[in-house]
Design a protein that fits this description.
By secondary structure, the chain is of the alpha/beta class. About 50% of the residues lie in helices and about 10% in strands. The N and C termini lie far apart (about 50 Å).
Length: about 325
């Protein structure tokens, strides 16, 4: 990991009362992009914000709700920006980088929020002009909602944000600027290599989503269970799977296609463990099942102890409707 500069760096608030960046450009005005705009305003993380989205309807809505200046083209949005954050599906980031490259000013920082880093690095970096710094990033935050109205300023508070500078990064100041920006939004920044990020996220995020998509689809397709019964009798576990499976299908399609090696590796390990559980159930090996479940329960406790979730009953969702 590339961590040396962080050990002596204090939070941005301690270093200066000025904003980490002057002009911020956000490309893609969905949940993450609109949340960054709201958080940056609330925490004075920049002086001005300009946003662009490929959808005219989304641009219009972003203007209506006052997220910032709205540009009609990607080049107009990034012109004079100190920090540009790509908040689009991973599959189109290379095309966007190529389009905006001529308008980037020297010294600008380009980053992103994609949950895959190797593919983004390969797609975006070749289009970044000399004198402009590309530092891929990934805030570990989100919901199943999408669109400019879905964002909220507190989305990143108390959450991790991973940034993955190139291995031979010569401008430590730009890494520190990006770190201060995310700290201003309430995140704790972790710096790691691209390959490590993709393997870690494959097991902590990508595989769980794949399982959720699959189990919800399987339940729907079972001939012995109608769709109405699946909905009516959804227990807590299945209900949580449906929440995850409601995530943006375009975004997740791009994630799996662009992180396939790490996902397939983790899927192979998962299948091996699932086969072991299958054998334990078949042969009535209750001790193996209990041991496995005890270990899993301990992991859940460690997540709560780390402040990454709450131990409140039913996660605060309350009882199902009687309708």
């Amino acid at each position: 990991m590339i961590r040396s500069f962080l050990s002596s760096a204090s939070s941005w608030q301690d270093d200066s009362l000025t904003s980490p960046v002057s002009r911020l450009a956000i490309i893609g005005i969905g949940l993450i992009g609109s949340s960054i705009a709201r958080a940056a305003k609330d925490h004075s993380a920049c002086e001005t914000i300009c946003l662009y989205d490929g959808s005219a309807d989304v641009r219009a809505r972003a203007g209506e709700i006052g997220l910032g200046e709205i540009a009609d083209t990607v080049t107009a949005c990034v012109k004079d920006a100190d920090l540009i954050i790509l908040c689009t599906p991973v599959g189109v980031m290379g095309e966007i980088a190529e389009a905006m490259a001529p308008a980037l000013k020297s010294g600008a920082i380009v980053s992103d929020v994609g949950s895959v880093k190797s593919a983004v690095q390969e797609a975006v970096a070749p289009h970044i002009p000399e004198g402009v710094h590309f530092i891929a990033g990934h805030p570990i935050a989100g919901t199943e909602k999408s669109g400019p109205d879905a964002g909220f300023a507190s989305l990143f508070e108390g959450r991790w944000c991973i940034i993955t500078p190139p291995d031979e990064h010569e401008d430590e100041a730009s890494v520190q600027t990006l770190t201060k920006f995310w700290e201003a939004l309430g995140s704790t920044v972790e710096v790691m290599s691209v390959s490590r990020h993709d393997r870690v996220l494959a097991i902590t995020s990508h595989l769980p989503h794949l399982i959720a998509f699959n189990i919800v689809g399987t339940a729907h397709d079972l001939e012995s269970v109608t769709e109405g019964e699946v909905v009516k009798f959804s227990a807590g576990g299945f209900r949580d799977f449906t929440r995850i499976a409601a995530s943006d299908p375009v975004m997740w399609r791009d994630v799996f296609l662009n992180n396939k090696e790490a996902v397939l590796e983790m899927l192979g390990r998962f299948n091996e463990d699932l086969s072991a559980l299958q054998r334990a159930i078949r042969w009535g090996d209750g001790e193996q099942l209990r041991s496995f479940f005890d270990r899993s329960r301990g992991i859940r406790k460690s997540i709560i102890d780390a402040g990454q979730d709450t131990a409140d009953d039913d996660f605060g969702r309350g009882k199902p409707s009687s309708k």
